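ESCALATION

Customer reports they have been waiting on this structure for their group meeting. Please prioritize. Original submission:
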Amino acid sequence: EFNRDGSLYVSGNFTHTSGRIIVSSTDGGIGVITFKGSGIQTYTSGGLLSGAINFIVGSGTDLPFIQMGTGLNPAVISGGTTGSFTMLPGTTLGVTSPDGISLSGLTGNIRVGGTRVFPSEANYIYNGTVSQLTGTGLTGAALLGINNPSGVTLSQPVTVSTLTIGDVAPGSIFNDGGHQLISTGTLNLTSGTFNLGSSTTGTAMPEFTTINYGSGTTVAYVSDQAQSISSMNYPNLYLSGGLKTIVPGAEITVEGDVATNGLLSVESNLTGSGSLIVYGEATGDVTYRRILRE
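Update from on-call: job pushed to the front of the queue and completed.
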């Protein structure tokens, strides 16, 4: 129990599976719980929160990784408190809820009644065990980590510095859900699949400056709408849905296998054409459209 203004600093795991944490002051008192460890701190929920309790992740040079329970038992900082939740730049949140993180309402791992601050300079690791949405709380990230073989899907366009897929959970799946991911940083596709597009929107591969692929990984263009294949090297390439085009001047190299499902067209104009080089197995038809000079 906090009497009027009280502060609690947590350097290790925080387990609150029963009982109540309350602010009992009737004259505007506020409790503050600050996570200030140097590594992973696991939050386990189940107890009740009451009154104005502000949660702060990070303190000074202490930039912890707060893991919200597990995929089987996601932790929730509940709406029983009218306080706020604030992450500092450089801190990390392990997101386990199927709904991700939300800016308001009683969904996601963070449900406090006050302001929720998820800065784009922080890191967000989605490591649930059932399919997850990123949620309205994710608008940007220094690092967006995807470690969920059941799949994580963007809820809205997001700008990230680094996207890492499957560095902890092999076979992880990231879907942009038809929301354009924006990045000129780094893609680490360590294990799993990066799916581009939705049934209604054809998105493009972000313009990563650095791309690191793991063995057996796949980039998939899956929109039902038309999509242009970005000029780059691919580990494995999979196409489904609507027409896929390699535009004039685009150079596509697939180090592994490609499955076109008969959807791929390699286009040309008077000054050049697209190109496709496949070092592995190619399945499905490819249409080559050539323009000949008179």
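Sent to customer with the following note: The longest strand covers residues 158-165.
Escalation resolved.
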